[in-house]
Amino acid sequence: MLTDDLRQELRTRIAAAVTSREAAVDVMKELQRHYGWLTDEAVEEAAALLGLSTLQVEELATFYEMIYRRPVGRRVIHACDSISCWAVGGEHMMAQLARHLGIEPGETTKDGMFTLLPCCCLGNCGDGPAMMIGDTLYGRLTAEKLEEILAQEKKTL
Ligand code: FES
Question: Superkingdom of this entry's organism (predicted)?
């Protein structure tokens, strides 16, 4: 359930947008932050706040790969599997991540810490292979860097 403060904050942001649809991703991201993922309840709340139907919110939610319509770990790793990263070892990076975490891409670790998701280009092609965890973008990944980053992320959980 939303807090009154968050509901009011979202109403203010929607009012500042040119159209409510423009604010939809922002609203979905905030609700996702609140619930951990975009639950059915969150979709209904987003629809009510935005003046859209739940189907319209659902369509938007399933279009954006950083909106999660199923439970995810406390940290979601978006590992780029597009062409530029692939050309500089992206596939190897994905395999290393999967091995390190003990899961396949698309899965969540048993302790609920990490979800590993392949994703489209993160706009960091010149510094591939790239991945994103939360709002932090990482590039020029090596096996050593991956170990360090994951260890650091675990410390912040
Ligand atoms: S192809 Fe990986 S960041 Fe663009």
Answer: Bacteria
